[in-house]
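Budget justification note: compute hours in this period were largely spent on complex prediction jobs such as the one shown. Inputs:
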Amino acid sequence: MSAGTQKIVPLADLAARVPDGSSLALGGSFLHRGPFAFVRELIRQGRRDLEVVKQSPGYDIDVLCRAGALSRAKAGIVAMEGNFGLAPWYRRAIESGDVRLEEHACASLTAGLRAAAFGVPFMPCGGIHGSDLPALNGWKTIEDPYGSGEAVYAIQRIQPDFAVIQANEVSASGDVRVYGTSHWDRIMSRSAKRVLVVAERVAPDASFRDQPELTLVPHFLVEAVSIVPNGAWPGSLWPDYEIDYPAVEAYMTDAPGVLADHLAAGPEAREAAHV
Amino acid sequence: MSEAASNVTGAWSGFSYIVTNLARFVRPNEITFSGVNSALPMLACLLAKRAYPFAFTYINVAGGVDPNPSKVPISSSDPVLAEGSRAIFANEDFYDLCTRGLMDLCFLGAAQVDGLGRTNVSCIGDWHAPRVRLPGGGGGAVMLPTARRAVTWRTEHSRRTLVETLDFVTAAGGMHGVVTPIAVFTKREGRLVLASWHPEASLDEVRDRTGFAFSADGAAPTPPPTPEERAALTALDPEGRFEADAGIRLR
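Corresponding output:
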């Protein structure tokens, strides 16, 4: 994590930093502002045995399952959303046992990430009482050491190897700006060991100095950045573009060649091929 | 007659019944939340804003706080739902609001609901070898026990959705309300009881199609939609696109 050096690298180089077996906190939610060009590049590079850590993955976890790149997941809710329903290749991977799920509530996953971000081994999380999830995951309660008698679930630290954030704009030195909701990207960027970013474009350094409150992640936390216009396709990136519903619908087709066609249609692939 | 037309002209479609009855859980001056994968509660919150003569705070998973969206999105987490918002109240914010006891009403999804108002959104069959892996509960396990009131909906009213025994308890704490195409349940003394049934259904039909035992003391046919409720839903779904996507049938 260095300041001021050249951080902008080609997407292929960014994805090549992720070894097989890595755990990845992926930014965004469902079809919105996910690092989807990055995920497709991992698939093109033949990555295996990955783990997704995300409160609400959808297309990203589904396409990784479809390509056989995933072996584990920590998630709260998984769906394609919109009007597309369940994530079919993810569902199949869990039902067949090819992918091992650690099922969370979104907030328990956040608690685990908070523990990592705060530098402590566990984090209390409200609610959860009466759910079967603690027995499934071995979550333990602790009693208030200050004597209120209240017992809360303590969620173990979750420290992903990488957070991968899809951003609107970056500075040349790697400051990250996001418009609209930040979903869980902030806590992901503070909890992961390394932070990688894909952005639509570079914005002038002066604009970051003018409005520093818009910077979600400062450059010194960011290892490297790639510039990929339309990189959240087929999802949305507010306010630049909306979900490409026909592209998602085409992706959902279960037939030979559909995944390859889908990967070839990604804006990052089209740019590389100068289409 | 199309389903959309039916919303205007008389018969009460399952789609309109669910959205309208979800909206009726919204109360003045409260904080109400709609989340991901929740097109019907999103429509209910937007309907309540249009149809009811009182103020409430509507927050949503796109970070919106009383937004003024330029259109109604297909995805209930679409960033359009933060257009015109005065703040971005992001995911960690609304979960923390809920766990510290300030979320008045939240809408949470469910695949199965039992008579205690607990939910399964995890799996059909054994969790470790599921016949069907479901999406997972999202906020449920944390929000259902900590929200002041939580309400869910099922687009299918049957003994496989309203069950005596859940395949897995994703979230406990007890729903305050459950809305199906033919019935509205609410919680009394820790159990779901029937509040009302669709005017085209009957108490016998609701009992026949419900897997858990329930009291129907005081239950009656659901009051039909008011002109304001009908007009609001028509304005939100003028072409019947949401109604067609939802594909809800009374039976």
